[in-house]
Write a structure and sequence with these properties.
The chain contains 3 helices and 14 strands. It is mainly β and about 180 residues long. It has one domain: Electron Transport, Fmn-binding Protein, Chain A (Pnp Oxidase, Chain A), CATH 2.30.110. A hairpin with an 8-residue loop joins strand 7 and strand 8. The longest helix is centred in the N-terminal third of the chain and has 9 residues.
């Protein structure tokens, strides 16, 4: 199979399109991020890479808390809006129904099927970005998106960002059972 050489690029599939929430001053602010992923299981932790100029990063540093909100495809337009416009210039505090969990300073979005409430445990300077690692303090899942007491990816219908072609997509078909099909 012949390969095309593209040089260093940030291609990883799929990339989640998440909404990162933080209190900036007295207002909830949300930004769209795709460079986000699980970092550890004990303690449960997540990482998100944010450009240093981001208004949301200011709030994360102010309170040492943030949220990761997993939107469904039904709110793709609002997710894109949060990626286009900075909270420095546009007030995004009224864009969603906001609630707070145990941390009180990490705004969570009611319209998102999954919400992760996070306490900052480490940051790493990556020149163009700052990698923020947060311990997941609490997880909230919309009850309609739970089947047999487990989150149901089909009901969550998470929004996926596709780098390179710069578009949003949804999850596709099931290929097989993890930690099982490789045994054959």
């Amino acid at each position: 199979m012949e390969k095309s050489k593209l040089g260093p690029q940030t291609l990883l599939y799929p990339m989640p399109a998440v909404l990162v929430g933080a209190m900036v001053g007295e207002k909830p602010n949300f930004m769209t991020a795709a460079w986000c992923g699980i970092a550890a299981s004990k303690p449960p932790a997540i990482s998100v890479a944010l450009q240093k100029i981001r208004h949301t990063l200011k709030g994360i540093k102010e309170h040492d808390t943030f949220s990761i909100n997993v939107p469904s495809t039904t709110i793709a337009k609002q997710v894109d809006y949060c990626g286009i416009y900075s909270g420095k210039k546009r007030d995004k505090s009224e864009l969603f129904n906001v609630f707070f969990g145990v941390l009180k300073t990490a705004p969570l979005i009611q319209e998102c099927a999954v919400n992760l409430e996070c306490q900052v445990i480490h940051t790493l300077d990556l020149k163009s970005h700052e990698l923020v690692i947060g311990e997941i303090i609490e997880t909230y899942v919309t009850k309609d998106c739970v089947t047999d007491e487990k989150p149901d990816p089909e009901k969550i219908d998470p929004l996926i960002y596709t780098p390179g072609v710069m578009q949003y997509q949804r999850l596709g078909e099931i290929v097989g059972k993890a930690f099982h099909m490789g045994k054959d």
